[in-house]
């Protein structure tokens, strides 16, 4: 059963997956998930497709219904706002219903203190809503940092350089979400800040994967009714996503929107591709012009890329979906029971939340 989008189906996905919501069973045998996509306009569509593809693969025969939302207060171009108007639902729709699970992405930060971001209040409201209205919540990158800041006061720490590339992580806890992934996993990261293991552990989080070079990768904590799964990285990324970000940062350097030339993503390019990007960097440093980007060896680099993190990403998301199914099944199997008092009168007991 393919992933089913509730509401208008975004371009690029309808042609590949023409499934109708009426074709799937209802009840405990299906999942409803809210995807709150906060990525900047340039990455909005790619992010949709990355999560659609990952969830569609990980779900196997499980019907998964996905509904799109985005936080208000994130700066948008006219084109970006038009896409939201065409395919996304307003948050008023979110407040008025429950979902089995929610996935919330990050966005590009503009303030060193996340509480000063214009969308902070609504983000905090979503986090509190998710605690009581879902069985599990995934927070990606900046959303993970916002989640621990809001619920536990854990601040992120700036890094000396961008944590950029594909890093190797060890499983440091036994947990159902990482079953079947092997003892080591490799996932992409792209961030300027981190939350540190010591602070997380002190506040009751369980670290799932981490390494010396990459820091904390994933961690979990139960918050009210919802198990929160946090990723500092991006298991959903496609093979070319880091390349697109690298090229974007090079453009910003050539346009003098940033002072330093971006570092090559670690563990991402094979040896010949690394030589190509280093040669381009040397030429760009000698002659800093935006039109030099026309000679960026993108085609050759694309041919060399491989999504090596795809199997563990699918495995973790499959485990996560199975966790949500189990919790939903447990909740639906507990009937509302009539309690008979000593006097013989009947009292109605509420279903557990």
Provide an overview of this structure.
The chain has 2 domains: 4-238 and 307-332, Rossmann fold; 241-304, no CATH class. The protein is built from 10 helices and 12 strands. It has helices spanning 41-58, 78-87, 91-95, 120-133, 142-152, 197-202, 241-254, 271-286, 298-304, 310-332, and strands at residues 4-5, 31-36, 64-69, 101-104, 136-140, 157-171, 184-194, 206-211, 215-223, 226-231, 338-340, 346-348. Strands 1-3-2-4-5-10-9-8-6-7 form a 10-stranded mixed sheet. A two-stranded antiparallel sheet has the order 11-12. α1 (41-58) crosses α10 (310-332). The chain is globular. The relative contact order is 0.12. The model is unreliable at 336-353 (pLDDT under 50).
List descriptors:
single chain, 353 residues, Rossmann fold, two-stranded antiparallel sheet
